[in-house]
Amino acid sequence: MLLEKQSKWLEVAQSVMINEANAIQFAATHLDGSLSRAVEIILSHSGKVVVSGIGKSGHVAQKIAATLCSTGTPAVFLHAAEAVHGDLGVYTPGDPTILVSKSGSSEELIRLTPILRQFRSALIAIVGNLESHLAREADVVLDARIPREADPLGIVPTASAVVALALGDALAAALMIARQFTEQDFVRFHPAGQLGRNLYLHVGDVMHRFQDIAWVRPETSLKDVVIAMTQHPLGAACVVGEDNHLIGLITDGDVRRALQRFDDIRSLHARDIMTQNPIRITPDVTLGRAAEIMENRPSQISVLPVVEGESGICLGLIRLHDIYLGAR
């Protein structure tokens, strides 16, 4: 009985997600010149965009405002109910407004429209009812109609919410292209987040330098390899030649596998268990690219040797841990 219930729950969950995806696809096919006009309105004003909504649409509006801010378009969220109780002070003349509403008949938003005209605010409506009062009053309407909500009852703001959110993302993306928004611009707005860290910092900024890592020669005994890795517990030891040219890499996993394969390890040396010509990286690579190299593969790599350009001279190590947590 429990398995039957769990199967039903999974079936419903999958249905919701599929229906939401279909609703977004449906909205995408109805995008037209209105989106371009919305972009032009926002670009023509040097100030900010105000995004407003109520209820679930209000939560969507908050996310749209946050996305616009992070992609080069200054924006603030205005709670539709609080607006007429003093929060209209956020406006400067000409600030365009994005109004989010499934029905297009939310009383709080309708009450705002004549007031916003006094602020010379162009109105961009994201609505699911093109015949609604809000749609008629808006300067530009982005079509957020859906076939039906995705929940089992067909009444919970599910598909309508994700479609409104997707339209906000689509508008933000179009504005990014119009503003020629770059990765460097994104970094300026996200200096403390992992996304910004991945773009802004390089391997050389967080790597462990040669003097702080375990490094051995090819002829170093396995015992001394283990001692070196214990003294510098970073999960690996670099095997280098006389000129510190990288020859191989020994990880904790290599040591464990050697213990499994050989009954007598006393005669083993670094060259017997190392990975020859391992994947390596240079200090100038961004952390984001380093993470891709380590993660986007059938078997994830947790540590990489860092070398100097084409010379192959070993400079140190970087761990996946260093990329995500900045631990040195």
From TrEMBL:
Residue ranges of domain SIS in the record: 38-181
SUPFAM superfamilies registered for this protein in UniProt: CBS-domain pair, SIS domain
Database matches in InterPro entries: CBS_dom, CBS_dom_sf, GutQ/KpsF_isomerases, KdsD/KpsF-type, SIS_dom, SIS_dom_sf, SIS_Kpsf
Keyword Signal included in the entry's annotation: no
Keywords of the record: CBS domain, Isomerase, Repeat
CDD domains: CBS_pair_SIS_assoc, SIS_Kpsf
PANTHER family: ARABINOSE 5-PHOSPHATE ISOMERASE KDSD, PTHR42745
Family the entry assigns: Belongs to the SIS family. GutQ/KpsF subfamily.
Protein name per UniProt: KpsF/GutQ family sugar-phosphate isomerase
